[in-house]
Amino acid sequence: MHPARSLIAFTTLSGLGFGLLAWLGIDPTPPTGAVAAAFYLVAAALALAGLGVSALHLRRPERAWRAFREWRTSWLSREAWTAALALALSGAQGLLLTFGTGLLPALGMGLAPLGWLAAAAALGTVLCTAMIYAQLATVPRWHHWSTPALFLALAITGGALLSGRIAVASVALALTGALQLWCWWDGDKRFARAGHSLATATGLGGIGTPRPLFPAHTARSYVMDEMVCTVGRRHARKLRALSLALMTVLPVVLLQLPMPHLFGFLALVSHVIGVFVSRWLFFAEAEHVSGLYYGRR
Amino acid sequence: MTALPPEPVRKLGLVIDLDTCVGCHACVIACKGWNDVAYGAPLGDADAYGADPSGAFLNRVHSYEVQPPDGPAQHVHFPRSCLHCDSAPCVPVCPTGASYKRAEDGIVLVNEDACIGCGLCAWACPYGAREMDPSAGVMKKCTLCVDRIYNDALPEQDREPACVRTCPSNARHFGDLADPESAASQLVEARGGFALMPETGAAPVNRYLPPREKDWDETGWGDETDVLAPWLAPVAEEPQGFLGWLDRTLGKV
């Protein structure tokens, strides 16, 4: 699949933003006042930047509002709803924590359910994003439970890093790294496991072994640009190593050093770059079955 | 609505004969020509006369070579377009309801006024049958010439998809594949028509007719295939003269 910069940026940034909102939502002793404002602004900026970039992927962005309609069947539509819900709930919570410090003692634990709902909506958005990819039987590498698992794990890990939970983040980084490794290892076998081949794609397998003789068209096409994009895989192995090192190994080490503000920040930067690389590979390494017609994957 | 309708009573679709298709691409051009001026936004091109031309097509013709376990390789031309699937995976993924399947005849269409151009339906299609229009920014796909087949303004013989009407080798047939008595269904029955990639579960309506078995035995294509064959047989199986020396010498090295 074509690794579209808009989708890579969207899934990475919004994953971080919603991950942070989830941690802020379930925090029993949330920050208040200016600190709360800073946390919520960072989270909202990441989530909104992600959503804004995702609109660049649309060819008719002025009609984006229509995407709210088909939530009964479409994960893309569900994502629009959960994102709006998460931003509204977290926004209410953030405003209360920032400006309503006088009200907080009176509210007491009353604020907690709002936070839990906001956290659920935030993680629900990440889940819907992941399901857009996981639902596609046409891309066997994505069509697996591990796709939402990895998206959620990365959001939770990134959120923990952003909110300064050093112990939690260290454990989450290690677990996410292991999950990512397994996703690559297992993902490489999924196309073969799905059983698609040029023989089934053309139905000519009953006669013999088909192979492409000459192309259907000499110019490029939308299907080739979008689905049969193999260029991004050239350095896949090196990029996997780089991604794992930056995304999990280096941040775990950095988090154990003194001066948590400096090294915590460096761990975050390293992690985010690593997630970008991982997301690039998520798209670039994905093989669409329609590529079979072109003799490629 | 992007929920799939209950199973349609009529299932209009194409039957494509891989035996008689000669790979002339006339269906591709007829389709492009009709859809340039018909249903929805004109089927667009980008940089049509420039250095990097591309464009949306609703039908593409591939060519494959099939090597049977015994016997010579066969050459098969393979037209590929929307198969108007029973469980069309492109329909439920649409967030706006622009992608839909008609309850009355099973045709899968795009309401271009509601399409946001996200491209998710094209990702969901196993057959690569949908292409984004480069100028209108909406998804295009085979309409089964819905604006021809019900069009009373056209002479009756023209009320079939443009690709079927134009095919010079009669390799394309159009009909109701839910009706076992229809000519299209009869053809599928008689020739052992098959569906593409049944393992995807999309349940396509269109059928493909396999290439017929070719006359062939171990001696070649049979005596009558080519009168020139005896004169085309190699005269010397072993290389002679300098080439023979080179062959023997290199063989020893």
UniProtKB/TrEMBL annotation, chain A:
Database matches in InterPro entries: DmsC
Residue ranges spanning the membrane: these are 7-26, 38-59, 80-108, 114-133, 145-162, 168-185, 239-257, 263-282
MF terms from GO for this chain are: dimethyl sulfoxide reductase activity
Q: Which residues form the signal peptide?
A: none
Domain of life, per lineage: Bacteria
Q: Which GO terms describe its cellular component?
A: dimethyl sulfoxide reductase complex; plasma membrane
Q: Which Pfam families match?
A: DmsC (PF04976)
- Can you supply a Gene Ontology BP term from the record? anaerobic electron transport chain
Per UniProt, the keywords (alphabetical) are: Membrane, Transmembrane, Transmembrane helix
Highest classification ranks of the organism: Bacteria, Pseudomonadati, Pseudomonadota, Alphaproteobacteria, Rhodobacterales
Q: State the name under which the record lists this protein.
A: DMSO reductase anchor subunit
Automatic annotation (TrEMBL), chain B:
Q: Which organism is it from?
A: Salipiger aestuarii
Q: What keywords are annotated for this sequence in UniProt? A: 4Fe-4S, Iron, Iron-sulfur, Metal-binding
Q: Respond yes or no to whether keyword Iron is given for this record.
A: yes
Write down what this protein is called: Fe-S-cluster-containing dehydrogenase component
Indicate whether Ribosomal protein appears among the record's keywords.
Answer: no
CDD domains per UniProt:
PsrB (cd10551)
Give the molecular function GO annotations.
Answer: 4 iron, 4 sulfur cluster binding; metal ion binding
According to the entry, every stretch annotated as the 4Fe-4S ferredoxin-type domain falls at 12-42, 72-104, 106-135
**Transmembrane stretches, by residue range?**
none
Its signal peptide is: none
Q: Name one Pfam family in it.
A: Fer4_11
